[in-house]
Target: DUF2550 domain-containing protein
Amino acid sequence: MEIVEGIGIGVAVVLAALLILFIRRALYTRSGGIIRLSVRVSTILDGRGWSPGFGRFVGDELRWYRMFSFALRPKRVLSRKTLAVERRRLPEGQERLSMPADWVILRCTSNHAPVEIAMARSTVTGFLSWLEAAPPGAASPRLASQDWPAA
Model:
């Protein structure tokens, strides 16, 4: 009888964990402004260290949440005021195995620290529009001098 109780408790714990993950995801995705986004969390090995997740636009911030995490807070917050895109490129080598084929990698700086993010090619335009959005009359030099290759 103890074995059956142990199995029942194990199944209940697994179901509760899955329920928490789905509720967490539903809470964040219901309000819109959500994009699929991978962030490179480690640069130790070339082409590795990408973590899948989703980004949520909240005012002047892009909040990134890991896909498989119980955390309610974002793992990383990128502020529009300190974020600048240096260049974009297509996935190379091992990166092609860890993300969809139509994704683009953006090398950015945030608070003078490098950060690499990857997103679908169709999402890049919206992301860049959000990044460049400014009040009327304000000029943003973040992308004006960049010559971007066609991706």
User: Anything to note?
Assistant: The beta strands are 34-40, 50-58, 61-66, 76-79, 83-89, 103-110, 113-120. Residues 25 and 67 are 8 Å apart (CA to CA). The longest helix spans residues 2-29.
